[in-house]
Amino acid sequence: MAVxxxxxxxxxxxxxxxxxxxxYGEKVIVGILFACAAFSIxxxxxxxxxxxxxSVDFFRAISPVEFFTGTEWAPxxxxxxxxxxxxxxxxxxxTLIAAAICLPLGLAAAIYLSEYAARRTRSFVKPILxxxxxxxxxxxxxxxxxxxxxxxxxxxxxxxxxGVFNALSAGLVMGIMILPTVASISEDAMFAVPQSLRAGAxxxxxxxxxxxxxxxxxxxxxGIIAAFVxxxxxxxxxxxxxxxxxxxxxxxxxxxxxxMQTMTAFIGAAGLGDQATGSIGYKTIFAVGLTLFVMxxxxxIISIRLVRKYREVYD
Amino acid sequence: xxxxxxxxxxxxxxxxxxxxxxxxxxxxxxxxxxxxxxSVIVGLVVLVALILQSLIKGWPRLNLDLLTRFPSSFxxxxxxxxxxxxxxxxxxxxxVTALPxxxxxxxxxxxxxxxxxxxNRFIDVIIQNLAAVPSIVYGILGLAFLSxxxxxxxxxxxxxxLTLSFLVLPVVIIASxxxxxxxxxSILDGALALGATRWQGVSRQVLPASIPGIATGSIxxxxxxxxxxxxxxxxxxxxxITFNPxxxxxxxxxxxxxxxxxxxxxxxxxxxxxxxAIIVLLCITLLMNAVAIWLxxxxxxxx
Lengths: 315, 303
Fold this sequence. Notes:
The structure holds 2 protein chains of 2 kinds. By secondary structure, chain A is an all-alpha fold. Chain A is built from 13 helices and 2 strands, in the order αααββαααααααααα. Chain A has helices spanning 2-5, 24-61, 64-69, 85-116, 119-134, 137-154, 167-191, 195-203, 208-219, 221-237, 240-245, 263-272, 280-314; strands at 73-74, 81-82. A two-stranded antiparallel ribbon of chain A has the order 1-2. Chain B is mainly α. Chain B has helices at 8-17, 23-58, 64-68, 81-112, 118-131, 135-147, 157-181, 185-193, 198-227, 230-235, 255-263, 268-299. Classes of the chains: A mainly alpha, B mainly alpha. Chains A and B meet through helix 2, helix 4, helix 5, helix 6 and helix 7 of A and helix 1, helix 2, helix 4, helix 5 and helix 6 of B.
């Protein structure tokens, strides 16, 4: 049982030896280290305050009913409209396209890496895939705008081709960007499935396809779902690709060939225009930001819980 | 424990049994193998296309002039010197803030924290959540407290650097925790048995042993900070800057911001300049990723 020796609590009884004389310096150091760890609480509280305080102000001026049910978004015009639904629909469309790419491809890539790839192939394919996750998002935006969009416009099979700015190209490229995240967390979950389960299925005559889809994937399901949820949460929160490639017009539509504005793209674009601090235009940044934050937070918490669950089962 | 240890030879023998099954099973198996391999190939093809496309498009501008000139309203004269220096300043700030705080937090969580205490479990959850907060939300944090609002410093080097530090802090903490956890407790136990205090054992034995892992995580974190544009945009950093930053409260531009600026201009010449700047940015981030992977493989110790 090599596992038992790596557990920290085993060293606790030795602490009696340290009590020879009081070391106040040690206490100070532990205090500093605790302060470092507690700093993450400060950042979190900072984020919550930064979002909530101006949002409360915003919702005093604009009723939440108008915000969440209005179908027009034009906060910076003279005749301003504050319906968030067009931004929400933009976010949903782009996220669905990205999910349609990154979930199946990510899961398949994870199955390949965990079940099919030889050890040597895996050792260079995995780092190369991880490079995809390390490419700056502004580069993906450029790629979507100047490569994928022209490709779509020239080879569009159904009627009027998409415009220069469209949700489809942004979503496709975003899907590729998130692929390694989904693949790597799913693969962790599959790696945690005990080898004996695979051997058992193989002994019963199962093919590799059957082992992968009926043993490994179901056994690692909570981790795979965690990967999916985290991938979708990343798609919702991604800014630069949609800001560059999906356009800046908030339209309530589900046609992916049209230009759309997502919540993140609105926040980014609002940062470009110089909103006077404290104006209603400035406060919309925080109201939309709070909506975005709550959506991603819920998904992240679900994802973290699911990961913990599969770790508990097999560790 | 014997059943759960990997026994690939037994699996291999068992798998050979499957060849006795019908053609349908073998065909389905082959098709599935092709599909999962294909999904990896799709990713690799996009990666190659992305790099090639930037190279081809940016090739005419990929020379020393690009690196030494400042932004200009004429696309052929525009360069990225101020953007490179702005990025370097921000990397510096991230290195002196996020790195020590992140490593300190990781040491506390792994070596000193009572993992049963509610506040330590709370911090654990908070760190995992922070790692998944969208980058633009960190921009909102910087906007509300640093750039405007509370401190009202404006879009300067220090506000952008600190915002990026908040952004990469959870990345540094998580990577450092994994590196520290990988050092077996027998090393610390040995130090304690010889009469070292816990801090002496951690700082002189555990920490040096975990430095390759911490370095790998930190390089990846810095590479992420270099590539981030969204939070900086929100701070108001999209500016026409024809000088290098002179200090912490100097205006600045950064590589991803400069690239975004050029992409959003209509003239084709600026798109060429953007592609060339993208090659420079990709060289920096991919080189850092390569160094990180090399470090991980070179110094990975199996205890």
